[in-house]
Amino acid sequence: MKIKLCGLFQNCDIDFVNEAKPDFIGFVFAKSRRQVSAEWAKAMRPKLSSVITPVGVFVNESVTTIAKLLNEGVIEMAQLHGNESEIYIRELKTRTKKPIIRAVQVISRADIEEKQDTVADFLLLDHGAGGTGESFDWSIVGQVKKPFFLAGGLKADNIEQAIRAAKPFAVDLSSGVETDGKKDRGKILEIVRRMRNE
């Protein structure tokens, strides 16, 4: 089971993930309380362990901006949370050849069905708008054609249940490894240790 820890925004967060070694981390470039600048991400990238894949999180960002960050190696994957069309995703893939994650706001099974045939490489199934710390009904996931990240309200006390119910390729945590809105080293180490022992 792969693990993604999203929303790193402080220098110490890099130290925490380097110690824990999740598979992926997320830099949020979209407007959010965890938003980071391209400059900050560029400065942090060389400090990130080579075994961790950095993912950029975007909402309706220009293809040019995302392609530049991917091609410069600041991030290795792009995660799209806006109204990006299939034409947009194709254009991005043409310009970078790097993997794309298409986020889906899951209210019902129909939301997943609608995005099954995307040209993106992965789906990310999240509760509503994302970043809410709320989870959705994992039992509606069913069969999904593409490998997917499961997000939304995941934390130490529900993650095993979520994995059993949805069978994702990876789990994606943000607020679940925070205390008072900041990444918590203890929670990060605990969740990665727990997942690695699965």
TrEMBL record:
It is an enzyme of class 5 (isomerase). The lineage of its organism: Bacteria, Bacillati, Bacillota, Clostridia, Eubacteriales. Belongs to the TrpF family. HAMAP family: PRAI. It comes from Desulfosporosinus acidiphilus (strain DSM 22704 / JCM 16185 / SJ4). InterPro entries: Aldolase_TIM (IPR013785), PRAI_dom (IPR001240), RibuloseP-bd_barrel (IPR011060), TrpF_fam (IPR044643). Residues 4-193 form the N-(5'phosphoribosyl) anthranilate isomerase (PRAI) domain. It catalyses: N-(5-phospho-beta-D-ribosyl)anthranilate = 1-(2-carboxyphenylamino)-1-deoxy-D-ribulose 5-phosphate. Its EC number is 5.3.1.24. Pfam families: PRAI. Pathway: Amino-acid biosynthesis; L-tryptophan biosynthesis; L-tryptophan from chorismate: step 3/5. GO terms for biological process: L-tryptophan biosynthetic process. GO terms for molecular function: phosphoribosylanthranilate isomerase activity. This is N-(5'-phosphoribosyl)anthranilate isomerase.
